[in-house]
Amino acid sequence: MAGYSGTPLADKLGIKAGMSLCTANAPSDYKTIVDPLPAGVTFVARATRTTGMVHVFASRAAELDAALKRYRRTLGPTAVVWVSWPKKSAKVPTDITEDTVRALALPLGYVDVKVCAVDATWSGLKLVVRKALR
After folding, report:
1. Residue 121's closest CA among 45, 58, 55?
2. How far is the CA of 120 from the CAs of 2, 86, 92, in angstroms?
3. Domains of the chain by start residue, with CATH
4. pTM assigned to the model
5. Cβ(76)–Cβ(51) under 8 Å?
6. Measured between alpha carbons, how far is 8 from 34 in angstroms, rounded to an integer?
7. Which of 41, 82, 94, 112 can pair with 55 through a Cys bridge, CB separation 3.0 to 4.6 Å?
8. What is the mean pLDDT of the chain?
9. Percent of the chain at pLDDT exceeding 90
């Protein structure tokens, strides 16, 4: 469990039963850190219009910018995009902060609705498409 609330990470992220989930650049232990998962969650290799959630991990703003643009074109209007970047305390080289994520995402029509600790290394920001653009 990430953070201090005692809430399982899958619940914090909003992973629902039967959801399709795509990850990008996720840590090798991703399935372990989101365990337990609700029934019927499937991991897909590529995001499509029917993918319910994408969780992208990035340490470089240029990579994140390209990924967010790609997901904005690819995903359906109600899909969720979680963006994770290294926490300052993790001492991982990065040029991303929470403000960077917003600066890249907001012009694309995303709005941030939640933040959470993913694990000791990664922070996360939940993005959805602004309702007026759906």
Report:
1. 58
2. 7, 9, 11
3. 9-133 (3.40.50.150)
4. 0.94
5. yes
6. 7
7. 82
8. 94
9. 92
